[in-house]
Amino acid sequence: MSTDSREVILGVGAGIAAYKSADLLRRLQDRGYLVTVVPTPSSLNFVGAATWEALSGRPAHTQVWENVHEVAHISLAQKSGYFIIAPATADLIARISVGRADDLLTNLVLASDVPKMIVPAMHPNMWNDPATKLNVETLRSRGFIVLEPDTGRLTGKDSGQGRFPEVSRIVTEFDEMTGNKQDFLGRKILITAGGTREAVDPVRFIGNRSSGKQGIALARSAQLRGAEVSLIAANMDSSSLDGISIINVESARDMQEALQNEFASCDVLIMCAAVADARPTAKLSQKIKKAFFTSIELEANPDLLAELSSQKSHQVMIGFAAETNDHIESARSKLKAKSLDIIYVNDVSGGAIFGKDVTHGTILLRNGEEIALKEVSKDALADLLLDYAIRQLG
């Protein structure tokens, strides 16, 4: 199983600062990270599992022996793209530095080969002890990013270096480690995804093979980069998208209405959905009997992109094209005819691309530039399209 750059394990050590990690969890989620909390058993004396589960919306794993059939110490490690331990006590730092694996968190540290950040918090005497200093040195030599704790008041009247850093500083440092750019802060991105369905009768419909995976990748990437994201979802599963406004639609006309309501306020429109070109002239209220199901009379659906291009003011518009022949020429024509800034086209002969995690195709820009992509993940394509969109926004 490959890692997901949005998936983060938040390890929580047994320090009084554990309560501050609840705010850290929220701030990470606000930036589009998907967080699984793994507290040490002792840390539950400070913040209980119920708190972590309520805030993250996920189980808070603690013991290696929980749900043994899932092999959590391997499955969680393989799933995650980054690791942050906050707070990290002197004991936890010592155990990690010598490769101990006596709870789920330390098992995960050994089992995962991803960038890791450690956020120490402890009494100044413990932070300045030669053993702790050596342990921190060891971890840094192995590639761990270990933050310097803040200086200030700690538990009781004591003061000095060892205080849990401000959450804003931790998030900034974490973004730097992950390469998370916040270049869409203050921007609104509207995305359509999935495939529309045009009802023939209460049972049957005209549809297509779009899974919505590319739209989900775009929504997550835009959220991770600071955008306010709205997703118009046509017949797809969007349950994994926390913090994103979801507008569920079924038909092209439903999508048309949603777009008319949302388009004026967006900065970037990404039309990733596969919209049916035609619909039955009449939707019957009763199922057509097999014996009478001989033909379907169709009428054209509205051209949603063409409609919006006539209303365009400041928006950057990105279109998608799925073709089976002459795909580059078709994309060039669509780019010009619909006043798009960017279009991504791929060859879907034989059902290629649909439902897959990877894609291949060509990005065409309005200035005539063309970028051919042999095979990339849909996540990577999402980031690339957003890179070009932010250039257009200036």
What does this molecule look like?
- It is a single chain.
- The protein is an alpha/beta fold.
- It has two domains: 4-178, Flavin prenyltransferase-like (Rossmann fold); 188-393, 3-Layer(aba) Sandwich (Rossmann fold).
- The protein has helices at 20-30, 49-56, 72-79, 90-97, 104-111, 124-127, 130-141, 167-178, 213-224, 252-262, 304-309, 327-337, 378-393, and strands at 4-12, 34-39, 80-88, 116-120, 145-146, 150-153, 159-163, 188-194, 198-199, 205-206, 228-234, 245-249, 268-271, 278-280, 298-300, 316-323, 342-347, 358-365, 370-377.
- It has an eight-stranded mixed sheet, sandwiched between helices.
- The protein is elongated.
In short:
This protein has 394 residues and is an alpha/beta fold.
Topology:
Elements: E1 4-12, H1 20-30, E2 34-39, H2 49-56, H3 72-79, E3 80-88, H4 90-97, H5 104-111, E4 116-120, H6 124-127, H7 130-141, E5 145-146, E6 150-153, E7 159-163, H8 167-178, E8 188-194, E9 198-199, E10 205-206, H9 213-224, E11 228-234, E12 245-249, H10 252-262, E13 268-271, E14 278-280, E15 298-300, H11 304-309, E16 316-323, H12 327-337, E17 342-347, E18 358-365, E19 370-377, H13 378-393
Parallel strand pairs: 1-2, 1-3, 3-4, 4-5, 8-11, 8-13, 11-12, 13-16, 16-17
Antiparallel strand pairs: 6-7, 9-10, 14-15, 17-18, 18-19
Helix pairs in contact: 1-2, 1-8, 3-5, 4-7, 9-13
